[in-house]
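Example for tutorial group B:
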C-alpha cells in the first residue's frame, strides 16, 4: 500500500503518480497565488475542532477550489496529514461539525459504515421513540435482510418477531422506517 509520503509532490511527475494511485492531489495553478491551505484552517489543540475559514459548499463542508475543481477541505487535510488513500471512502465527523478539518475528528469508512453511524446517532431521536414502533431498528434491518434473501415471507417474519403481518410488511417496505435507509446525505 503506497502512502502519500512515497510521492514527491513538488514535482509534476510525483503529483501525477500520486493521482494515479488514487490520491486527491489538487492541480497546481501557476500564476494564481492562492492562500496556503493550512492557513485557512483554524488549527487548535489536538482534540479541538479545527474550523475551516475558507469557502463552504451547500452542505457546510469546507471547499477548496483548485483549477475549478472543488475539493473538500477536511478530506484534503486528512490526506495531507496521514498520507492515507481515502479514495472512495466516506468521511465521518465524530464531532458532527462539517467545518472541522481536524484529522483526529475524522473517520473514514464505507457507505454502509456511514449509514450505521447515522443510524446509531439517530436512533434515540427517531423510530424507537415513536409510540407506534414495536420493532427495534436493529430488528427492522435484520428482518429486511432476511426478507431480501427471499427464503422467508412477511408472515414468517411477523411470527418470528411477534408483530402483525401488516407491521412487518410496512417495516420491510420502508413505510414507517424510511429514515433508516433513506437518511439524506449531509
Ligand atoms: Zn471537530
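The residue assignment follows.
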Amino acid at each position: 500500500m503506497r502512502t502519500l509520503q512515497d510521492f514527491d509532490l513538488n514535482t509534476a511527475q510525483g503529483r501525477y503518480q500520486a493521482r494515479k494511485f488514487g490520491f486527491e492531489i489538487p492541480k497546481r495553478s501557476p500564476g494564481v497565488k492562492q492562500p496556503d491551505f493550512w492557513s485557512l484552517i483554524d488549527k487548535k489543540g489536538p482534540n479541538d475542532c479545527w474550523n475551516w475559514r475558507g469557502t463552504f459548499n451547500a452542505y457546510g463542508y469546507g471547499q477548496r477550489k483548485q483549477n475549478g475543481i472543488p475539493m473538500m477541505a477536511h478530506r484534503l487535510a486528512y490526506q495531507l496529514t496521514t498520507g492515507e488513500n481515502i479514495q472512495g471512502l466516506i468521511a465521518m465527523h465524530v464531532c458532527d461539525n462539517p467545518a472541522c478539518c481536524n484529522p483526529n475528528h475524522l473517520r473514514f469508512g464505507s457507505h454502509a459504515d456511514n449509514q450505521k453511524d447515522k443510524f446509531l446517532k439517530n436512533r434515540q431521536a427517531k423510530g424507537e421513540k415513536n409510540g407506534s414502533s414495536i420493532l427495534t431498528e436493529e430488528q427492522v434491518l435484520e428482518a429486511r435482510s432476511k426478507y431480501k434473501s427471499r427464503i422467508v415471507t412477511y408472515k414468517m417474519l411477523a411470527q418470528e418477531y411477534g408483530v402483525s403481518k401488516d407491521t412487518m410488511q410496512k417495516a420491510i417496505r420502508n413505510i414507517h422506517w424510511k429514515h433508516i435507509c433513506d437518511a439524506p446525505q449531509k
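The helical segments are 12-20, 73-82, 111-122, 137-148, 154-161, 165-172, 178-181. Compare this with the pattern of hydrophobic and polar residues in the output above.
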